[in-house]
Amino acid sequence: MAIFDNSEIKNEIVDSISQPEWLKELNDAQKIAVTNLNGPLLVLSGAGTGKTRVLTARLAQLIATRTANPFNILAVTFTNKAAREMRKRAVELVGPMAEQITLGTFHSVGAQMLRRNAELVGLKSNFTILDTDDQLRLIKQVMEAEELDLKRWPPRIILGLFSRWKDRGLTPEKITKSETGDAAQGRAKSLYKSYQDRLLSLNAADFGDLLLHMLTIFNENPDILLKYQQKLTHIMVDEYQDTNVAQYLWLRLMSSSHKNLCCVGDDDQSIYGWRGAEVGNILKFEKDFPGAGIVRLEQNYRSTGHILATASKLISHNEGRLGKSLFTSASDGEKIQVAGYWDGTEEARNISGHIENLIKNGQLLSEMAVLVRAGYQTREFEERFIAIGLPYRVVGTRFYERAEIRDALAYLRLVYQQSDDLAFERIINNPKRGLGEATLQLIHQLSRSKSISLFSAATHLVLSDELKPQAKRSLINFVNDITRWHSTCSSNSPAELAETILEESGYTTMWQMHKSPDAPGRLENLKELVTAIGEFESLSGFLEHISLVMDNEAQSKDGEVTLMTLHGAKGLEFETVFLPGWEEGIFPSQRTLEENGGAGLEEERRLAYVGITRARRNLFISFAANRRIHGLWQSAIPSRFISELPEGNLTEDMEKGLSIGRVEPIMIGEADTRVGKPGYGPAWQRMASSKGSVNVSAPVRGDGGIIEQKRQQVSFIVGDRVFHLKFGMGNVEGVEGDKLDIQFDKAGRKKVIASFVSHK
Would you name the residues annotated as active-site residues? Predict the structure, then answer.
């Protein structure tokens, strides 16, 4: 393999004083990547090293040097946005001729090729590409024809299995017994073939077919493959580390004659294994393409020295990597701040405080981001930001806007207020209860004719003979459940009520049986919802709070702080980045470790690397000693990744702490004995030293290390200045027993329980 030495640039065009503009702005390594135009080439592009500039400059160089005509070039990306940006830049560099480049996503390019050759796999050129909903309906029909139990084997699970097979380039004929296991009672292979046959009869394809069919065509029709090889003589691929097996096989076939394949990617940023990406594709590039050149882009234009050193040290613990070390000509900047907090609430409060301080120092909200490992972690930050009036945006879906959370809230709303027709409509058949459209129409008709709520109409309807026996039984059970849960509102805590409803309704079981990739995340979100409800004394108080959260549309001329998952942050950058929740079980994810072992750990570490390298100037990493999981306090220990960070690049007080190695788990009751020990910042000392003071949450050890929370009772008088976790700062204007009437600065006038506020 030719590994290019940045100090020995021999290409004439690099040395020429008459370089085109796109070469003059490149560093030495980038020029090598741009000017070595023939043969296989792997460009290892570290985070922030200018890979998009290299890709577009290479397109321009291919055309300007007449190495290839524009119509002989194929450039493949993973998103339409990236493809549009690359084409736009190429046109700016070399003019309209760049419009002739074949440039698009794997799916879009595959679809173009398949339409020209559709008859070779039994399709017509005007075939339909089915979306997910259509695919689900189709697989359901196939399974029903096979008389399979759809509850035991949900169609979405079977469809996900087919998708994974297609990502690996496997047609039904290539599926072995070991591949199918006991899925669909051991009939998954025949189902797969029936599904594919049904697609052909409908003149349709799903997304996985777009490349799978082309693999079949290329392998069975060498003349067709040769035609594409002769037409597309130079191939470039962006984000090569994210390719799956089918995409890899497609690229190998396309480039097998001319070998002019340039792949740009970063093995250290391969974080999508859960959706089929195969990091091995980039790791074995030199084996697949003997004599290939490797160029390492290591000069970073984004981050400070301390941030890059921290990222490089962390990722060096991975064994499955080709290796590179990022550097910058910029200053070292501020050291990375690593802090431990007593619990997640204090973590959110302190991060909010850091953000407010940064705003005072002139930094814009739009330049800051909080990046979490899992979606459910956004909840505490969303509520804290709302409480203090801090504008924010959630990239993806806000916590309380997620489908499973809206479903759960609909149950709670209907239990609290049976006249809530919108809630009734959302959950009447969720999960499925066998209540079809005919039953719902009858309920609506009765509701309109008597001017009563849908729930009242359902109550009346079950007393009649209008319904079929099965529908009647299901509706009776539903009405009885809602009525029973409503009767326990006063005797059960809101959290207990929510748990009962989610369990007895079958909603939790539905997601436990749902083996789609996002099902575990939805279950985590439901647990987090129960945790959130546990902070309220009454169901009505919680539902009122939700109305406040859902109505939050605060805007600021300085923008909004970004709140998103680490997976969603890839490709983005921010002036300041906060990385909370670095605890074992959360990050690295316990589920990932259990399912994928060492490979899973390395992908989690790559995800941490991605998070660190999103920061340009300031980086904050934090963890908590305690988390409330499913309503119960549990002790936590810092992530193993924290002990892998380089001491010299961290703030002074944490450097000393890390020298003791990984921090042992704190069991509550030991907190005061740990004060002053290395590894615990000011937050730890404040919490421990405040033991027994006003309104401090004082968790105490329970059986098995589980923590139970007890609150101190404190007296308040009118005029006291107080702080509430949800509503922020306010003034006490009335006292009635343990209830306070408070005028909050941001949230207005509220009645709250005294134990939920503290003096300020």
Answer: 51-52, 238-239, 269, 614
